[in-house]
User: Fold this.
Amino acid sequence: MSFDVDLFVIGGGSGGVRAARTAAATGATVALAEDSRLGGTCVIRGCVPKKLMVFASEFRDMAGLAREYGWSAEVGNFNWTDFRTKLDGELDRLEGVYRRLLDNSGVTIHDARARLSGPNEVTLDTGQTISAGHILIATGGRPVKPDMPNAALGMVSDDIFKLDSLPESILIVGGGYIASEFACILNGLGVKVTQFYRGAQILRGFDDEARGLVAEMMQEQGVDLKLGTDIVDMWPADQGDSPKAMGARPDDRAPDTATGPGPVIVKASNGTEQRFDRLLFATGRTPNSSDLGLDDLGIKIDRRGAIEVDEYSQTAVPSVYAIGDVTDRIQLTPVAIREGMAFTETVFKNNPTAVDHENVASAVFTQPELGSVGLSEEQAREREEIEVYSTSFRPMRTAFADKPARVLMKLVVSKASRKVLGCQIVAEAAGELIQMVGIAVKAGLTKEDFDRTVAVHPTMSEELVTMQEPTRTA
Ligand code: NDP
Assistant:
């Protein structure tokens, strides 16, 4: 049976683009549909603009530090408009790079929304129907607001990059990656940040000691972190002290422009009532699996909305595969890219390749950053007897300037196999450091392998190869 194309990819984010390019490189004919901007969440409204904002926010304290080192230095005010103009230009450039990469690979791009109209057919919102030997769903995810009245008064992370001006104050709700990263970024840019997290400590799932230190350092730098706190009620600030019934129910989708919701008064579970110029919900993301025609084909979705796939990313319909955040395995760009490459190996290179989701390193770009790979102390303890090697200290660079910043270097080691099961780093540039340690942990190296490695001196990370005695065993 002949098809219009060998592969049709729905979604032009990190995973979809990589799968399309690698499949096309095998000689397959490939088409891709994207109804928004090429590059997807990571490039357009996630990792890339976020990291540039991290860089921007870090300059606030640099002049102070430089002065401690003998420089006469001043940092004036941050100009959001200048930064945003530059940022928009950079994102346009990157989107162009993605388009060129696809063009140069011979992939046909459809700037349209696609939905499955058969196991081997997609229909575009232009009305065009295209048949394909295989269909790959790589539609990603989107931020969600909590299910509460007046949720429309809050923004989601997508909206931050579209702000016309920075607010004077913001309430951030959530304690995950996005909430904690934006709390640090906006605090660094001079916004008065309050963060509500409903649980006992932010960054649930990460090592307790590591997230505890991140939270402490965030508070030290001025983030007003309220743990065990949630919104009880909220209303537009222009309605004054007493809320009028708005009857609004949450709107799952981000508002079209961030200039929509304005100042808000929030009544919190800790009894306070406070006005904020803006409210940001960073309360998780949901897979973009609706309105794709999946039900009609019998493609299963779990209760979180994730498309169910096997280890080769194949759905219940053999010709249809899904990768990346829409499958909600690990919501990280490099994982989606790996899944895309494994898909090409499996389908177009006759080399069935399952994606290995074990020991994926990641970094939370808070200030300081949290880099992590493998098991936390708590997770490891559940599995076997362990030794913990942990040290927390004031790093040389900021200690010289008498700053209170502290870092953490931590290894979790199996007593039986001596393998390093996990590593946690809380420090400036922890994201860079954990990439390297990730190789050692992935390779299954032992504590003795770490010990045999001669330290690089003077660095923070030399502690990872010089810790002699376990801090505790469990
Ligand atoms: P997370 O799932 O990490 O965090 C969501 C947070 O919102 C949690 O603290 C959760 O609390 C809280 N929450 C959920 N529902 C409610 C509610 N109704 N009311 C109050 N609080 C609520 O999601 P994020 O949106 O931060 O990030 C999504 C994913 O994107 C991450 O898991 C990560 O994989 C990826 N990401 C990665 C980054 C990186 O690599 N640096 C950066 C940004 C995102 P609780 O803990 O109690 O459930």
User: Anything to note?
Assistant: The CA atoms of residues 266 and 274 lie 5 Å apart. The longest strand covers residues 129-137. The mean pLDDT is 95. The radius of gyration is 24 Å.
